[in-house]
Automatic annotation (TrEMBL):
Organism: Emiliania huxleyi (Coccolithophore)
Signal peptide segment: none
An example Gene Ontology biological process: protein O-linked glycosylation
Annotated region (Disordered), positions in chain: 1-35
A Pfam entry, by short name: Glyco_transf_41
One annotated GO molecular function: protein O-acetylglucosaminyltransferase activity
Alphabetical UniProt keywords: Repeat, TPR repeat, Transferase
Protein name listed in UniProt: O-GlcNAc transferase C-terminal domain-containing protein
Pathway this chain belongs to: Protein modification; protein glycosylation
UniProt cross-references to InterPro entries, sorted A to Z: OGT (IPR037919), OGT/SEC/SPY_C (IPR029489), TPR-like_helical_dom_sf (IPR011990)
PANTHER family reported in the protein's UniProt record: UDP-N-ACETYLGLUCOSAMINE--PEPTIDE N-ACETYLGLUCOSAMINYLTRANSFERASE 110 KDA SUBUNIT
Domain (O-GlcNAc transferase C-terminal): residue spans on this chain: 88-335, 383-567
């Protein structure tokens, strides 16, 4: 296969005393007739990677362990083992594995090697944040090394940047538009595109000229088509090496180049190390620092990255109000069948009879083939069809399971014990995690009836289905990002417990942006998180009041105001460009729209919200005969292929 330099990708990380081939077929070409211990370890390692890519994570774990049993000094196998085990909540020997991962990481950093641990995988490992920054810096240095090898492939004279024209993007007559380039491997049916496609459609073309550079071929999905049509220039560069892509970006005269990947699957970090644009900004895909001098700014906000933690970033911080996470729910998920708080019945508020105890399909007052119990509404009937307790409290978390660590699960167990008849609703994300979590619950004395698992579903169906839950329990180590925004849009209150890392503060940012921060942010630690969940689970009137507050603010909250977010982002891009034109170095800043402009945008959004609310009510009021579920709430068929394979690349970002 092509070499690393030819591919324009970053090199393989250090594998200790082992030299790992670029592909499994290379192993058969170099292995001796009598395989050495080293060759056997490599064979197990590659077998593990193949199993993991196919969604057979349990088999991958066994092969990673076999590789380490044969060759103890194998950091890549060790870190891959930790990642695979986390993805399916296999916590056997977790503490010993994490101690070994940390020791291996420190040793590789001290030796000046590129660590085997990937920066994205560090989100699920409890490391000190200065060490996480060192990890990012090491991978950034590796990207710089790849970029250095690619420079001979650049046009003669190198890459040329556009002149420092302060009028660019001003909107003045005859002024050049500010050319902004977005680079991503995730333009397709991916959470990042679900969040951003409205951004590309709403950009002010009188001031900005927008380019999208796709690092992956089209998946022929509707989200991909939406971005292709919304962007003024959409360029598929998936078949080009990083040097050619950098040359193309420079030739397009891009003023500000935006990295939507960071250290996630399909990234071309070395592309930004080549510096194709005078200003480069990290945004959305990777909730943390790149560690590299090649990104001047990181888009974040004052909650996700408070000023007192600024030393944990190599970039200057662009703090956007009120949240750095752009959303497109108000445009794309308005009519997906979300149930409003009015669907909550008096029977549920009373705690219901037999329907709340133990979950299951038994409903208070129901019997035989009855559609529902006494006093039931549509919500209770739909819950029963999904195997949820019609009158019990349904806690939920729809994040990928790698975000669930033993401490979080112990907190959930405590909550379930103290809220009678409650259940915890999770996704088979991936499939193999279900058995491991049920085993952990059984060891803690909770029966499987206190848990519900659903298959991964298409976006609209999943968001509508989520509205059947009562409270979303966030994962403190690494928060829900897109999933948290989905829950809030579905009208489901969320409870989060922020840490210091950006990835552990995103949900707090979203709760603040939707106007419910004080009720949803447990800033007193994990104990506060548990107590708040128990309080809401046992005081249903209070929980319903929070749900109604969220529902009332949902359509007009800044979190879901894509137009306001887009104008604020454009203001930030213009501000950093003006700073560059003045010859000033990048510096952190709190981005603020002018009061008059912000007020006008809020008025526009309020008017749009009235229209959206009317349309939503109209869409939700028309139900088929027999109280069939609205669109998106039909119980899905089990999709074991999707559910099993969704963990093949847990570093896809923005989940």
């Amino acid at each position: 296969g092509p070499t690393v330099a030819q591919r324009g990708r970053r090199p393989l990380p250090s594998f200790g005393s082992l030299k790992v081939p670029d592909s499994p077929r290379d192993l058969t070409a170099t292995a001796p007739s009598a395989p050495s211990t080293e060759a056997q370890a490599l064979a197990h390692y590659h077998a593990a990677l193949a199993h993991q890519a196919s969604g057979r994570v349990g088999a991958a774990v066994r092969h990673f362990r076999a590789a380490l049993a044969l060759q103890a000094d194998f950091p890549a196998a060790l870190c891959s083992l930790a990642r695979a085990q986390s993805s399916i909540c296999d916590w056997s020997s977790r503490e010993a594995t994490l101690v070994s991962v940390r020791a291996s990481l420190v040793r590789q950093l001290d030796e000046g090697a590129c660590p085997a641990l990937q920066p994205f995988d560090a989100f699920a490992v409890p490391l000190e944040l200065p060490l996480v920054l060192r990890l990012a810096q090491a991978h950034a240095a590796a990207a710089e090394a790849v970029a250095a090898s690619l420079r001979p492939l650049l046009p003669p004279g190198g890459l040329c940047h556009p002149p420092r024209d302060a009028a660019a993007g001003s909107g003045a007559a005859g002024a050049t538009r500010l050319r902004v380039g977005y680079v991503s491997a995730d333009f397709g049916d991916h959470p990042l595109t679900h969040l951003t496609r409205g951004l590309f459609a709403l950009h002010d073309r009188s001031r900005l000229e927008v380019f999208c550079y796709s690092l992956r071929q089209s998946d022929r999905s509707a989200p991909r088509a939406a971005v292709e049509s919304a962007a003024e220039h959409f360029v598929d560069v998936s078949s080009s090496d990083s040097a050619a892509i950098a040359a193309r970006i420079a030739a397009d005269g891009i003023h500000v180049c935006v990295d939507l990947n960071g250290f996630t699957s399909g990234a071309r970090t070395e592309l930004f190390a080549l510096r194709p644009a005078p200003l480069q900004v990290g945004m959305l895909g990777f909730p943390g620092s790149s560690g590299g001098a090649f990104l001047d700014y990181l888009a974040t906000d004052a909650v996700a990255s408070p000023p007192q933690l600024e030393h944990l970033y190599s970039e200057a911080l662009l703090r956007l109000p009120p949240s750095y996470l752009v959303t497109d729910h108000a445009q794309t998920l308005l009519h997906c069948g979300i149930l409003p708080p009015t669907a909550v019945s008096a029977a549920w508020l009373r705690g219901g009879g037999g329907g709340g105890a133990g979950g299951g399909d038994e409903g208070g007052g129901g019997g035989g083939d009855s559609e529902g119990g006494e006093g039931w509404g549509l919500r209770e009937i739909l819950r029963r069809r999904y195997g949820l307790p019609p009158l019990g409290v349904v806690f939920c978390c729809f994040s990928q399971l790698y975000k669930v660590d033993p401490a979080t699960f112990a907190a959930w167990i405590s909550i379930l014990r103290r809220v009678p008849g409650s259940v915890l609703w999770l996704l088979r994300f991936p499939l193999e995690g279900e058995a491991n979590l049920l085993a952990a619950a059984a060891a803690a004395g909770l029966p499987p009836e206190r848990f519900r698992f659903s298959a991964v579903a298409p976006k609209a169906a999943y968001v509508a289905r989520a509205s059947l839950a009562d409270l979303f329990l966030d994962t403190p180590l690494c928060n829900g990002h897109t999933t948290a925004a989905d829950a809030l849009w579905a009208g489901v209150p969320l409870l989060t417990c922020p840490g210091d890392a950006m990835c552990s503060r995103v949900a707090a940012s979203l709760c603040t942006a939707v106007g419910c921060g004080p009720q949803m942010i447990a800033d007193g630690g994990i104990g506060d998180y548990v107590e708040r969940a128990v309080r809401l689970g046992t005081r249903r009137v209070e929980l319903l009041a929070l749900r109604r507050k969220l529902w009332a603010r949902r359509l007009s909250a800044p979190l879901f105001d894509t137009r306001l977010w887009t104008r604020t982002w454009e203001h930030a891009l213009r501000a950093v460009w003006l700073r560059h034109c003045a010859g000033e170095p990048p510096a952190s800043m709190d981005v603020r729209l002018g009061e008059l402009e912000a007020a006008e945008l809020r008025r526009e959004n309020a008017a749009d919200a009235l229209v959206r609310r009317a349309r939503a009510l109209q869409a939700g009021a028309v139900l088929p005969a027999g109280l069939q579920p609205p669109a998106g709430l039909q119980p899905p068929r089990a999709d074991t292929r999707v559910a099993a394979g969704c963990c093949a690349a847990p570093n896809d970002g923005v989940t």
